[in-house]
Amino acid sequence: MCGITGYIGYREAYPIVINGLKRLEYRGYDSAGIMMYDGEEMHLSKTKGKVSDLEIITDRDEKRKRGTIGIGHTRWATHGIPNDINSHPHFSNSGELVVVHNGIIENYDTIKKELVKRGYIFKSDTDTEVLVNLIQEVKKKEGCKLGKAVQLALTQVVGAYAIAVFDKTKPNELVVARLGSPIAIGVGKENKEFFVASDASPFIEYTKDAIYLEDEELAIIKVGKGIKVRKIMDDSMVDTNVQQLKMNLEQIEKGGYDHFMLKEIHEQPKAITDTYRGRILANEGIIKMSSIDDNLPRFLNADRIIIVACGTSWHAGLVGEYLFEDLARIPVEVEYASEFRYRNPIITTKDIVIAISQSGETADTLAAIKLAKSKGAFVYGVCNVVGSSIARETHSGAYTHAGPEIGVASTKAFTTQITVLSLIALKLGREKGVLSKPAFQKYLQTLQLIPKQVEKLLEIDDQVKYIASVYKDATNCLYLGRGFNFPVALEGALKLKEISYIHAEGYPAAEMKHGPIALIDENMPIFVIATNKGHYEKVVSNIQEIKSRAGKIIAIVTEGDTQVKEIADHVIEIPETEEAFTPLLTTIPFQLLSYHIAVMLDKNVDQPRNLAKSVTVE
């Protein structure tokens, strides 16, 4: 949530910063702002609303766009309601310092009261204005340079932050720092220019060289001189690690699709293939994952696996529970990371904790990782973003290779996470002797068919679009599934809620009789996963119970099904596959359905209200 962009160098900064803000819109925000320094004055423009609203303001006065130094921000409100005044950037009382900030300063009120006693005046309700004035006070009191003032100020705050600070008395430098919220620094040739952003997407066309700050690190960026990175708490120097970016501009553009979400739904065949590419060696009949091979005794001798995640990743973790227990016979518990970290969980050195996150920056999941490590557990990460915090904090892990996911509602992240979990479960099942060699090889062959089957499913888009038109005005929906597809029911309901704002709930199909059946009438659409694998007859009975109460049934069935077709109002067919892999197929119609309903209701598909792509604060 929130987004930071910044530039200092020799180019006109405005187009870089404003386009950077557009690239970060997927993170979720309610207001936007920008500061440009023209060599003499700092020009501030900010507003409640979208980056497009900010552009209207800057277009009114060209001087707001001048300069080779600029910082920008998209804000997701924490302290203070969304309005023009609370929007970032924020100036210090002296008018010399300006800051943009992602995160939360938890002790801001205590600091603010002390600053008020010292004569400081505050215009906004934000914790960020408190922070910039604290930096000013430290700079004045200690008589130190900006970098040192920022460092000393940050030792006094409690909370999470990614910040970029500019001092107009030092016009050739920027100071950035992080704790809990990500920040990337793009490095130009010969240190003639630098870029700052919450992720690398705002500057990938300018440089492929990037530095990702670790927690409690501060960087002083000076044009022509380079970057110095220090530890905030002890002032020790840190060696900078310049990484080569692998993403390209084409990956973060819509590529002819109306929305990023639709593009990413259609990217799933390639994303799934890329995720298992090089890991499945079909000719040899093996799965090769060095992160598992190098730690195989830990996995084979583990008492249990604990999966921690949030949102869609939690649903992928639930599928993982079925995979590990069915294919490898390893006990699994799946925890909401946000609850796990606060309930004093019992963790031992014989536990393996698998942390799942698309961004690799989810605050609650990171906190759960640190808790698990403190208890001696082996922590394994599954994430999509190379160099992310979770990738660095875990003992080992696997990337999903989904490519950048811009739409807030995760699609390809879900299916690629399930793909990784499938590979791990299959590998452990074979190593433990749970799966025979013929059974193992059959699973591998079947998994390799999934991308083509997803491609085939995407061809039913018009059919799903018609079903969406029938039920777009529903106010409540139920999603039902059993076994491996119960988590898909949860995920389908979440997708509909996220982008169409229609209330929906997912349930195990058998649980319908324990409450939800009271809601069923002729106005209630019920989406049922009724594939021919796993409890098919039981699900058919559930469908008949719905039908007898006049509920509208939209069923996902296996190709060739006849029994459910006679009962359901609408039927969507998926190709035949192993039960363990059905979630990779049954989720596709639900993704398309939620997308089309949201479009028909004229909702902002890629940036749904109140949501952020990566939740980097509690």
In short:
The protein has 618 residues and is of the alpha/beta class.
Overall mean pLDDT stands at 91
Number of strands: 27
Biggest sheet record: 8 strands, antiparallel
CATH class category name of the largest domain: Alpha Beta
Strand order of the largest sheet: 3-2-4-1-10-9-11-15
Task: Find the CATH topology of the largest domain.
Answer: Glutamine Phosphoribosylpyrophosphate, subunit 1, domain 1
Beta-strand content bin: 15-25%
> Mind telling me which CATH architecture of the largest domain this is?
4-Layer Sandwich
Shape assignment: globular
CATH superfamily of the largest domain: Aminohydrolase, N-terminal nucleophile (Ntn) domain
Question: What's the topology here?
Answer:
Layout: E1 3-8, H1 13-23, E2 31-37, E3 42-48, H2 51-59, E4 69-75, E5 90-91, E6 97-105, H3 108-117, H4 127-142, H5 146-154, E7 159-167, E8 173-179, E9 184-187, E10 194-197, E11 209-212, E12 217-222, E13 226-231, E14 237-238, E15 243-244, H6 260-266, H7 268-276, E16 280-281, E17 286-287, H8 290-293, H9 296-300, E18 304-309, H10 311-328, E19 332-336, H11 337-340, E20 351-357, H12 363-374, E21 378-383, H13 389-393, E22 396-399, H14 412-432, H15 437-458, H16 461-471, E23 476-481, H17 486-500, E24 503-508, E25 525-530, H18 536-547, E26 552-558, E27 570-574, H19 583-600
Parallel strand pairs: 18-19, 18-20, 20-21, 21-22, 23-24, 23-25, 25-26, 26-27
Antiparallel strand pairs: 1-4, 1-10, 2-3, 2-4, 5-6, 6-7, 7-8, 8-12, 9-10, 9-11, 11-15, 12-13, 13-14, 16-17
Helix pairs in contact: 3-4, 4-5, 7-14, 7-15, 10-14, 10-17, 14-15, 15-19, 16-19, 17-19
